[in-house]
Specification:
Layout (H helix, E strand, L loop, with lengths): L17 H30 L2 H36 L6 H26 L4 H5 L2 H36 L6 H10 L2
Amino acid sequence: MKTPASHGGAAHPMDFGFRDLARGAVTAWTVFMAILIGALVLLSLAGGDPGGAVLLLGYGAVVGGAISLAVMLAGCPLAWLLGRALVRVRAVGLHALAFTALGAATGFGVVLLYVASTDVLLPDALTSAWSWTVVIVSAISVLGGWAHAMRHAHRARTRVRALRRPAVLDEDAAYEDGASGL
């Protein structure tokens, strides 16, 4: 496990540890759930049936939460591998693009699993607004998780560097302290 002191040396400017991975994964799941619940609330309000709204919100949040949690756990090894592959790359934009693509690919994988488990045909799924919403929300969620973890890891590296800096000595003060016996 990485400690803050081991983050981001010159050879590995974007190094990260398990805690960073976990922080990003939980953030990605939280962002996804916030968007899902927001969408379910809007759909419930548009429906006009209070009983149906509560049922849709409750069922959607529980089922969507469980499925997205399983997808998040299954996606963690892929995020770890992607992060390891990019550990020497300094370009933050490239990291953001790569993790956004990972999120989109994950969302597309969920759509494909849905197609495989139902009687929906792939061409119909590819033209469905629902499918593209899943892909886009997944991309946004993974990007948000990566950004949160990256900011936290960067702050930890900055704090460690500040602690490692030698104190700047005032030569006159040092001479005076030496002469006075302090």
